[in-house]
Amino acid sequence: MPERFLRTVTAIRDAERKALRGEDAPETPGSRCIRRSAARLTFIRADPIGEKPAASGTLRDPAGSPPCTVQLEPTMRFLPTRFHAVLDYLVGLIVIALPIALQMEGAGFVALIDLGLFVIVYSLLTDYELGAVHFLRIRFHLVLDAAFGFAMLIAPLIFDFPPAARWTAYPIGILSIVLSLTTRTRALGTAS
User: Fold this and answer.
1) pTM
2) E strand or H helix that includes residue 58
3) Half-sphere exposure of 108 (CA within 13 A, CB side)
4) Cα separations in angstroms, 41 against 21, 44, 72, 100, 153
5) Distance of CA 6 to the CA centre of its chain
6) Are 134 and 141 in contact (CB under 8 A)?
7) According to the model, what pLDDT value does residue 47 have?
8) Residue 160 has what pLDDT?
């Protein structure tokens, strides 16, 4: 990549970080493309020559800076993957401990133990900060979290849990679905 392009990318990312923290950022080439709003802007590319016409998603700076293309990331995904990873392991351990603490027997006991082990295993295989093997992408992990949440919501109905286990399984299922919708899809320092 040309050196000028890399300097521009670095300057824009620095300006974005300062804008998100509320600090005044110095004016740099292309920094006017960063709009202070609730949505986070992610820099994709800049055209330092200025030969490409403005197209959908391209912002032209009125002062003559090179155009840049931005992509809005949804603000719904605010939870860091490191925090999500800690919750994954805690939820897995709680789900395993639940049938033991409530002295459950039969198919409900086995179902909860299996679901808890499932969460811990796919968490260990996920490519995020606390994963051991870094095999599963975080997006696929979030799909598995949603599936786990739905399983926790229907398991009390299928296996006829006692009331104490039932009212513990429902919040865990809802929490898992909410976490799958609010966790960032990029883990720091990983390939995800």
Assistant:
1) 0.61
2) strand 58-59
3) 22
4) 13, 9, 5, 47, 36
5) 27
6) no
7) 41
8) 87
In the Cβ-directed half-sphere of 149, how many Cα atoms lie within 13 Å? 17
For residue 16 the two structure tokens come to 């974005």
Cβ(73)–Cβ(42) under 8 Å? yes
Locate tokens 């799909």: which residue? 143
Supply the pLDDT for residue 83. 93
What is the DSSP code string of 71-114? EEEPTT--B-HHHHHHHHHHHHHHHHHHHHHTT--THHHHHHHH
Mean pLDDT split into 10-residue runs, the chain, 192 residues: 62 68 54 42 42 44 52 68 94 96 93 96 93 92 96 94 91 95 79 56
What's the confidence (pLDDT) of residue 78? Answer: 86
CB distance 153 to 169 below 8 Å: yes
Give the per-residue pLDDT at 95. Answer: 96
Q: Which long-range contacts (CB under 8 A, 24 or more apart) does 106-111 make?
A: 106/159, 107/159, 108/155, 108/159, 108/160, 108/161, 108/165, 111/155, 111/158, 111/159
Of 98, 119, 111, give the one whose Cα is nearest residue 164. 98
